[in-house]
C-alpha cells in the first residue's frame, strides 16, 4: 500500500500496525514508584490507570528516548521508543537501578499492535468490548485479555494493544474480520511518523532533531520544573535560565521544502529546515524548521530555500477525530461527522 | 527588519505573555511563563486543560485585551495550542 493510501486510511478510517518499535516494560517492587520517579524528568502524579508522557535525556539534554508511563495499581508500564541504535532496556535499567524493583521486558511474551484513526474506538469497541468507547485519553485498561493503552501521536484516536503472544493470532484475525466494516487498512511506521510531523508530535526517529533539547523542541511540558536529579537536568536548567537561542517552528508552503535549506526572513538567515513532508490531505507541504528564537513565531512570510513559505501554528491538520462524538457518530452505521 | 514585521512580532510577544499569565493565574497551570512553550498543546496532552478551561481562557483574553473573538475561536479546533489561540487574537491565517 502506498504511503498516500495509508495516510488516507489513518486520517479518515482505521489503520492497524504491529508496533515493533515500541518496547513495553513492567516495573514492580516495593520501591517502584520511587525508582521510576527518580529516573524521569516528568512529575509522576498518576492515578491508577493514568498515563503520562515524558522523555529520557542524555547529560547534554538531548533526547535519547520517548517514554510513556502508565500506572497499573502499584506497578508501572513503561512504553519506550529509544533513538534508533540505542537499547531501550539498557537506557531504562541504567536509570532505574536494580534495588528493590524488577524491570521486566515484555517483548518476549507480548506483542504490541496499534490501531489508529477517527473510527478506531468503534472497531475496538466491537472487537474487545464497549468499555473501550469511553476510555479516556492517556489511560489504560485491561479488557478481553489484552492491555489497551489509549494515546497515539497522530492526532486521531490511537490505541496500543499489549497482547500475549498466544493471543495475537485470534485477536488480530478478529480485528481484521470486523475491520472490513470500517475499511481497515495496514499502516507502516513511516505513515505514523508522517502523521506525527503534521500533528506536532515528537518522534525519536526524526534524526534531524537529535542535536536539540526539549527546550528548543518545545517539549518543556514533558519535564517538571521541580525535578533536578534526572539525567540531563543540569543542562536543561542552564538552557532554561539563559533562554534557548533557537526554537522549533512549523512552515507551510505550496511547493516541497528541502531539509537543510536555509530559512530567510527579509533577506536575513533565521534558521534552516529540518524535515519536510507533503501534506497528507493534499494541502501543500509542511516542514519543521529550527529558527532563531526572537523570530520563531507563526504568521511570518519567509523563504525556505527557493520556496515561498509562511510560519504557522501547529498542528497542520484539522483531525476528523476532533469532531467525533461516539454518542452520535458511527462509521459502521453511516453517521459521519457533518 | 521591516517595521511592520517588528511591530507584528512585538504584538505577538505581548499576546503570548497575556496567554501565559492567564494560564498561570486563572487556570492554575503550574509552570513558569517561559516554561510554557509558544506552541504547547493546551488540552489532553501538553498543559492538560479541559473544555471548561477553554471557555475561561477565551473569556479572560477578551476581557484583558478588550476584544471579541470570533465564534469559531471558542471551539477546541481553534484552541489546540497556545499558538492557535494567539492566531485567533491577531487574526493570523490558520495552518491548513
What would you note in describing this structure?
The complex is a heterodimer of chains A (338) and B (96). With 338 residues, chain A is α+β, with helices and mostly antiparallel strands. Chain A has two domains: 3-192, Probable tRNA modification gtpase trme, domain 1 (Gyrase A, domain 2, 2-Layer Sandwich), CATH 3.30.1360; 200-312, Beta Barrel (Elongation Factor Tu (Ef-tu), domain 3). Chain A has helices spanning 3-12, 32-39, 88-96, 120-128, 165-179, 189-199, 233-242; strands at 15-18, 23-28, 51-57, 63-72, 75-82, 102-105, 110-116, 139-143, 146-150, 158-164, 185-186, 246-253, 262-265, 268-278, 285-292, 301-304, 307-312. In chain A, the strands form three sheets. Chain A has a six-stranded mixed β-sheet with strand order 8-9-10-7-1-11. In chain A, strands 12-15-14-13-16-17 form a six-stranded antiparallel beta barrel. A five-stranded antiparallel β-sheet of chain A has the order 3-4-5-2-6, covered by helices on one side. In chain A, helix 1 (3-12) crosses helix 6 (189-199) and helix 4 (120-128) crosses helix 5 (165-179). Chain B is an all-alpha fold and 96 residues long. Chain B has a single domain, classed as Non-ribosomal Peptide Synthetase Peptidyl Carrier Protein, Chain A (Orthogonal Bundle). Helices cover 49% and strands 0% of the residues of chain B. Chain B contains three helices and no strands. In chain B, helix 1 (3-25) crosses helix 3 (82-90). Chain B starts with a helix and ends in a 6-residue tail after the last helix. Chain A binds chain B through residues 53, 137-138, 200, 218-221, 223, 225, 240, 243, 247, 249-250, 252, 265-266, 268, 279, 281, 283-284, 294-300, 310, 312-318, 322-323, and chain B through 1-2, 5, 8-9, 12-13, 31-32, 34-41, 44-47, 76-77, 80-81, 83-84, 86-87, 90, 92-96.
